[in-house]
Amino acid sequence: MTDKSFTTTFLVEQTPDVAFAAINNVRDWWSEDVEGPTDQLGAEFSYRYKDVHRCHMKIVEFVPNEKVVWHCVENYFSFTQDTTEWIDTKVVFEISKEGDQTRVSFTHLGLVPEYECFDVCSNAWGGYVGESLKTLITTGHGARNNEARNAEAQAHHN
Predict the structure, then answer these.
(1) Which domain holds residue 46?
(2) Number of folded domains in the chain?
(3) Distances (CA, A) of 43 to 14, 52, 57, 58
(4) How far apart are CA 7 and CA 22, in angstroms?
(5) 29-88 residue pLDDT tens
(6) What CATH number should be reported for the domain holding residue 43?
(7) Among residues 116, 124, 114, which one has the least CA distance to residue 91?
(8) Cα–Cα distance between 73 and 125 in angstroms, integer?
(9) What is the pTM of this model?
């Protein structure tokens, strides 16, 4: 199953500690709609995007500058027959030095092509991790989903 799980990897010029800090700053690269702590072992947080997606994650591994693993304990999708597809999957971030660069590897263990949400979720993770998180690491500013929302949604947050 692992070999078919969604994964993406990128290299950055920043150090592992910068990458680690950015990964744990979930609100700046994924969404402002995250409640709870996202930066310590055993912490639990919830993500919500409108009535489309909700999930509850528990941080089950937290090795500074090397690895972070989230376990999905609850999930809901409005757009799949099995609304709970992510439950018991793990989101894994691995950080390593590669020469004078830092490699960030992301794998959503259990997010496999057999899942109805695979294409949508893979595309979303590609954007959040491969673009927003990478940008947060390299520039200090991510592109979380709130910035992509329309003016009405923005007005709701103001």
Answers:
(1) 2-157
(2) 1
(3) 26, 24, 8, 6
(4) 18
(5) 999 999 999 999 999 999 999 999 999 999 999 999 999 999 999 999 999 999 999 999
(6) 3.30.530.20
(7) 124
(8) 18
(9) 0.88
